[in-house]
Amino acid sequence: LTSAFLSCDSSTQADCAPSPAVQSSESLLRDKRVICSIDLDCFYAQCEELRNPSLKGKPVGVQQKHLIITSNYAARAHGIKKGDSLPEVMRKCPSITICNGEDLCFYREISTSIFKIVSRWTPKVQRLGLDEFFADITELVTWSDTGARVSVHGMLFPDTQPCTAPWSAVDPLTDRCASRLALGSKICAEIRAAIFSEMGLTTSGGVSVSKLLSKMVASANKPDKQTVFLPTEEALEALMPASLGVNKVPGIGF
């Protein structure tokens, strides 16, 4: 997928039609993997709310050096962004609580606890930083696949509203992939529900046939929601249009 996408350099991407990523659709639809990406919403800020429950619902920012590295959604409502200086943050939101995030020990403890929760579903878990996790749930999906059509839990990219009924695919290849991803979305929802029930932390999730695709859609409907990516040509065109710079692709640009 990545090599196909990179066949256009940044100076000519806008002239490519359709997106090179579309060329990968058939092979991706044949891929039997089901990968779940779980992204903790404003992780450091949520950890500070765990440490001090009185902060829940109030604007909170986490500071490292002289910058804000993250803030909760109550603070973001005031226009606070990652990388804002402390004077800028106080100007935007005088009532904000600033927490020092230099010591990572508490964040690491919480991250380890989440890793253990996710690992109850599969041993194939990879942690990215402290606040993102990939879970390969392929075997679970295969084991629970009865061939029955099931509904997606969450959104189906690029939709922004939850699915309310099983989808109807136009061909057997797409239908098979769709069914497996729907089962994967159910498992992803279970993992996220366990994290919230046991840790009190909200997460955003993505489900697709690769880490790259699941990660890209995990942030599509933040916070506290999950998105499924079925790699049809239309969906790939929407997620990776020809105009998308490589600096926007996880693992390449950031």
Q: Could you say which overall geometry the principal axes of the C-alpha atoms support?
A: globular
Radius of gyration: 19 Å
**Tally of helical segments:** 10
Classify the secondary structure makeup into a structural class.
alpha/beta
Strand content: 15-25%
Succession of helices and strands: HHEHEEHHEHEEHEHEHEH
- The order of strands across the largest sheet is 5-6-1-8-9-7
Report low-confidence residues grouped into runs of 5 or more.
1-8
**Helix coverage percent:** 25-40%
What characterizes the major β-sheet? 6 strands, mixed
Give the distance, in angstroms, between the N- and C-terminal Cα atoms: 17 Å
- By DSSP, the count of extended strands is 9
Mean pLDDT: 89
